[in-house]
Amino acid sequence: MKGICVNKMPHLKDIKLLQKIALILKELREEKVLSQEEVYNDTNIHIGRIETGKGNISVSTLAALCKYYGIKLSDFLKMVEKIK
Prior knowledge:
Strand content: under 5%
CATH class: Mainly Alpha
Shape: globular
Number of strands: 0
Radius of gyration: 15 Å
Number of domains: 1
CATH architecture: Orthogonal Bundle
CATH superfamily: lambda repressor-like DNA-binding domains
Structural class: mainly alpha
Number of helices: 5
Order of helices and strands: HHHHH
């Protein structure tokens, strides 16, 4: 397979989607009256860049945060879809 690099895929980044995700995650954290540091201590996930929409969150990280906040991933995604 000359000329094809299968290990390098472009990183896709949908800024508007990341901002919607950031908004909801921040709201969920604030509803629980938790600081970013407390979330990090409990989950080992740095959420600062995620909550600003600068971090391109993985599905696994999103699922872990949803579990932490007590919300189904499918319900979280429905919330994202409702934001215009």
